[in-house]
Amino acid sequence: MDQTDQEIEQIARAFFIARHEDGIWETASRLLKHEFRLYARQALSMLEKKQEQIWSEAPILAPAGILEAA
């Protein structure tokens, strides 16, 4: 399992626990785990898009002095 798969698994587990406070991830059905993994992938995708947006706007927002110092 690579890092992205591990991140998805951890996020899916966290979403599952938040939704099913008394549920146990290890005993959840494959279908339910799949559903929460989809939520996790979507959340990561949204974060990546937001991060790309922030980075693309960063030069516009950075003061000229900071760019010259680099």
Helices and strands, in N-to-C order? HHH
In total, the number of domains comes to 1
Average pLDDT confidence is 85
- Rounded to an integer in angstroms, the radius of gyration calculated over CA atoms is 18 Å
Distance between the termini: 38 Å
Q: Structural class given helices, strands, pairing?
A: mainly alpha
> What is the chains' assembly state?
single chain
Describe the structure.
The chain is an all-alpha fold and 70 residues long. The protein has one domain (3-51). It has helices at 3-19, 30-61, 64-69. Helix 1 (3-19) crosses helix 2. It is elongated. 7% of the residues are buried.
Question: Could you list some keywords that capture this structure?
Answer:
single chain, 70 residues, mainly alpha, 3 helices, 0% strand, elongated
Give the helix/strand layout.
Layout lengths: L2 H17 L10 H32 L2 H6 L1
Summarize this structure briefly.
This protein is 79% helix and 0% strand.
